[in-house]
Amino acid sequence: MFRAILLEQDDAGFRASLKELDDAALEAQSGDVVVGVEYSTLNYKDALAITNRSPVVRKWPMVAGIDCGGVVLTSANASWKPGDRVVLNGWGAGEVHWGALAERTKVPGEWLVRLPDSISTRQAAAIGTAGYTAMLCVMMLERHGLTAGGEVLVTGAAGGVGSVAVALLAKLGYRVVASTGRPQEADYLHALGATEIIERATISGPGRALQKERWAGVVDVVGSHTLANACAQTRYRGVVAACGLAGALDFPASVAPFILRGVKLIGVDSVMCPIEDRTTAWQRLARDLDPATIERISEEISLAEALERAPGILEGTVRGRLVVDVRR
């Protein structure tokens, strides 16, 4: 038997609960590697699934959780052997395939990334999809022309992706401007490396198609008017990496920044990202993310507490990352 957060939907309605599941149920899942989960995490997508506020789950019943850091228990995959330390991010876990808010999970070996020696399984969960996505955004900014020394805007800066993005960009030498709707988090953001804090409301409403040029680059997790204004304020040939929709799914923008200033808008997907980019991202995180920063941005909770804390993720009241110790 093993404990897991199980999501169920039937004629009786939707239920999210902590349950004891039989090992046979896990064995019935597709995959060739069983991972002993040590730490998972609570992401925005996990919160949507646990609260049923968005149709994230497409197969029932479902074990929640898109991330974990753990150790291989059994493997029928030549790439992995018992004892290997691995990290799982995305690939449909917690959506169409049983996920990792559980003491064990079974997945295809091709979904796993070998953890760098310097990153513990707890740190891997603290970084999670949010931090790995932030690293993908930084890699995309660099790949598409961002150079050191410019001013970079990070929206939703006090959240999981934003917190890691601020820390990474600051360490890499950029002047980071953090946008947040929580001015009380200013000290936290300055400690991560932000040089300036701006109020979310200044860029979250309708704006002109072209505005005063400011940003060499942008990491946006909000979407909607925030993303449109960020593009309108981006400097000539600047780069915008869009990876989230915390504000809304729409994009009420003009083509003006793209055809008059050559601004590049790059979509960043972490769920189905190729294994080569995943591996590079985790190697970069081992190099460019200070372990002390990982501790600063993370809070540890139990598996049962993940159910209680999920609504706060969606309401924007959670700072940084919630690490789930699935063994307590």
Report what the structure shows.
With 328 residues, the protein is an alpha/beta fold. The chain has 2 domains: 2-115 and 293-325, Quinone Oxidoreductase, Chain A, domain 1 (Alpha-Beta Complex); 129-267, NAD(P)-binding Rossmann-like Domain (Rossmann fold), CATH 3.40.50.720. Helix content is 31%, strand content 29%. It is built from 10 helices and 16 strands. It has helices at residues 23-27, 44-51, 121-143, 160-171, 186-192, 224-232, 256-260, 275-288, 291-297, 303-315; strands at residues 2-10, 13-21, 33-42, 62-63, 67-75, 85-89, 104-107, 112-114, 151-154, 175-180, 196-199, 215-220, 234-242, 264-267, 298-302, 321-325. Strands 3, 5, 6, 7, 8, 15 and 16 form a 7-stranded mixed sheet that branches. Strands 11-10-9-12-13-14 form a 6-stranded parallel sheet, sandwiched between helices. Helix 3 (121-143) packs across helix 8 (275-288). The longest helix is centred in the middle third of the chain and has 23 residues, at 121-143. It is globular. It starts with a strand and ends with a strand. The model has no long low-confidence stretch (mean pLDDT 96).
In short:
This protein is of the alpha/beta class and 328 residues long. Helices cover 31% and strands 29% of the residues.
